[in-house]
Write a structure and sequence with these properties.
By secondary structure, the chain is α/β, with parallel strands linked by helices. It is 55% helix and 16% strand. It contains 11 helices and 8 strands. Bound molecules: erythose-4-phosphate.
Length: 219
């Protein structure tokens, strides 16, 4: 299972990378705006800075919603660095753009996926990654994890090469359940990755070991 971090914050990306478990980064226009990044050249420079931290797989999202615009923008993004994966929304022209980029050997991440039907379309078009949004479905009383399970089943049944990238992951249980289901990738905030470290028995056990060691040493 791959771990991607879902942020455009360089310090958080560095912290996750330094932990040694990071496989990639996902961003979106809202996350870029949250970091105060705007304007084409600043956006490009920021993507480059992210690519310089991690080994591979940095999702950079197009803003255009028409085919020609997505192709133009996606090509520009892909030129920034070989690590870039072009992120395309699940809309009609987006499916066409995914097909185009697939034929050009440019990796894509199909985003804003909320149904199995959308997942089938993206896989048939040749998306490298598919991002179903768990938390946003949970927010409106649909079961986000159930969608991940359905898509994993469909992709395995037909041998689709597209990897299921579980997105909009809000807490550690989302991540753990995705692992049980067999999602290929999970993208989440830093606090979800570091949240996996926590267990009260680890903390109390360590405190006891250190105390016993100090006692034996006569300290
Ligand atoms: C995925 O690529 C999206 O950037 C992200 O996971 C959305 O998460 P949110 O619903 O917490 O904004």
């Amino acid at each position: 299972m791959k771990f991607f971090i879902d942020t455009a914050n360089l310090a958080e990306i560095k912290e996750a990378y330094d932990l040694g478990v990071l496989d990639g980064v996902t961003t979106n226009p809202s996350l870029m705006a949250k970091e105060g990044i705007s304007g084409d050249s600043n956006v490009r420079a920021h993507y480059k800075a992210i690519c310089d931290i991690v080994d591979d797989k940095v999702s950079a999202e197009v803003i255009s919603t028409d085919f020609d615009g997505m192709i133009r923008e996606g090509k520009e993004l892909a030129k920034i660095d070989d690590k870039i994966v072009v992120k395309i929304p699940m809309i009609k022209d987006g499916v066409k753009a995914i097909k185009y980029f697939h034929s050009e050997g440019i990796r894509t991440n199909c985003t804003l996926v909320f149904s199995s039907g959308q997942a089938i379309l993206a896989a048939k078009a040749g998306a490298t990654y598919l991002s179903p949004f768990i938390g946003r479905l949970d927010d409106i009383s649909y079961d986000g994890l159930e969608l991940i399970e359905q898509i994993v089943h469909i992709y395995h049944t037909y041998g689709f090469a597209t990897e299921v990238l579980a997105a909009s992951v809000r807490h550690t249980m989302h991540l753990i359940k995705c692992a049980e289901i067999g999602a290929d990738v999970v993208t989440c905030p830093l606090k979800v990755i570091t949240g996996l470290l926590k267990h009260p028995l680890t903390d109390s056990g360590l405190a006891q070991f250190l105390a016993d060691h100090a006692k034996a040493a006569g300290k």
